[in-house]
Every structure is written in C-alpha cells, then in structure tokens.
C-alpha cells in the first residue's frame, strides 16, 4: 500500500467519524438551534389541575427544594384561579440532585402522600415550609416529612414505608426522564402546548396563557 492510498484511507476514516458525530447529535437532540425540546404528551395518571380535557396544557418541571420554583408557585395559583376552567396544569418532578441535597427525597415525599390521595396537599406544604426543612440534615428532613404527613392526616406507617419505596422513586424518575428527553436543564421550566416558554413576570405569563386559550377557542370543533 503506497503513501497516497494510506492518506486516502485516513481521510475517509476521519470523514466517517465526523458524519457519525453529526448523526449522533441529531438523535440525541444536540446542537444549539431553537429553544430546546418539547413536552406535549400527557398521561391520565399524572398530577393535573384544571380542566383535564382541555387542549391548552401548561406543564411545569419543578424541584421541590428550588427557591425559584417556590417563587413561581403564586403565579401558578393565580393562573389556575383565573383560567383553570379553560386549561390544564401538569406538575412534573425534575429534582436537581447535584444542587439540592433533598430534591429527590422531597419529591418522593409528595408521591408518598399521593399514594394516600394527598399529593397536592403535601406539595403545597413542602413549598410553604421549604426554608425550614431544606436546612435540615437528611434524616431530620425525613422525620419532618413524616410529621407533615401526620399533620395532613395520613397513615404515618404507610407514608414512612412509601417515602423511600421503589414506587415513589420510580414516579419521580419517570418525570425526570421525560424532562431530560425535553432537554430541561433548570427549574422551573414551563411548556405551553408543547413549546417551552420563559415568561419574565406574571403579566407576561398570564398573557401567554390567555393567548393560548383564545387561540384554542378560535379553532372550530371537529
């Protein structure tokens, strides 16, 4: 094999590597174009508020220990108070475990409560008291969650068993996996009808929801 042939083979190999890299980026959702991934499919067993049959869907990926998520909670409540009969709100976990040491276990606490029909009550209580339990050590935080469960009238033993069960962990991990697929990187992240939105204040948030509802109302029924 002469030097020219070796050089040709070398460049063919390099070319194949580059092409393979581009293909891998496409299938992995790589690149810098657009605003990121989309999230649109909603399963009936998810945590939903509002009109479950609405075609206007707001999805939030959230971390119970995230201060920014706590700050957005009043926005969500006000949006639902005004537009809840015309839209559905879907809550999904996206624990930032590399940043918040109790993100995973606090998410599992809401799921453990959900197994007794009190997901939203625990969700609200954990956000309300975030500054209290987030400063505790892991064991003290777990005990605090158990005390919250008692406060909500839950079966203490069942909640304690469910808190670190495979079921609670899997519920959280499934949400996180869907967030990863949608290229969520931070919390809170919102998708309105499958498209990522980044409202800077409540007025902008409200207007985006209103526009989506008006657009949906303008579409003739089949």
Description:
It is a single chain. With 222 residues, this protein is of the alpha+beta class. The chain has a single domain, classed as Glutaredoxin (3-Layer(aba) Sandwich). Helices cover 56% and strands 10% of the residues. It has nine helices and five strands, in the order αββαβααααααββα. A five-stranded mixed sheet has the order 1-3-2-4-5. β4 (189-192) and β5 (195-197) form a beta hairpin.
Question: Keyphrases for this structure?
Answer:
single chain; 222 residues; alpha+beta; Glutaredoxin; 5-stranded mixed sheet; 9 helices; 5 strands
Topology, pairings included?
Layout lengths: L2 H26 L18 E4 L6 E6 L4 H17 L4 E6 L9 H12 L4 H10 L1 H4 L4 H14 L4 H8 L2 H16 L7 E4 L2 E3 L4 H17 L4
Parallel strand pairs: 2-3
Antiparallel strand pairs: 1-3, 2-4, 4-5
Helix pairs in contact: 3-4, 3-6, 3-7, 3-8, 6-7
């Amino acid at each position: 094999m002469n030097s020219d042939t070796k050089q040709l083979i070398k460049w063919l190999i390099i070319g194949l590597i580059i092409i393979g890299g581009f293909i891998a980026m496409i299938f992995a959702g790589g690149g810098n174009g657009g605003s990121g991934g989309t999230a649109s499919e909603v399963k009936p067993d998810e945590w939903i508020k509002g009109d479950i049959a609405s075609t206007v869907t707001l999805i939030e990926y959230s971390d119970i220990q995230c201060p920014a998520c706590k700050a957005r909670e009043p926005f969500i409540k006000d949006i639902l108070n005004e537009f809840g009969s015309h839209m559905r709100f879907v809550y999904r976990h996206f624990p930032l475990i590399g940043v918040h040491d109790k993100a995973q276990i606090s998410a599992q606490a809401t799921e453990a409560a959900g197994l007794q029909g009190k997901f939203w009550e625990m969700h609200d209580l954990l956000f309300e008291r975030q500054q209290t339990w987030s400063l505790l050590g892991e064991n003290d935080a777990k005990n605090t969650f158990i005390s919250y469960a008692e406060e909500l009238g839950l079966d203490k033993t069942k909640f304690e068993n469910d808190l670190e069960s495979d079921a609670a962990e899997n519920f959280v991990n499934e949400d996180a996996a869907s967030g990863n697929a949608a290229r969520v990187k931070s919390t809170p992240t919102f998708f309105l009808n499958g498209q990522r939105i980044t409202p800077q204040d409540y007025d902008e948030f409200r207007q985006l929801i209103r526009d989506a509802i008006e657009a949906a109302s303008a579409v003739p029924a089949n």
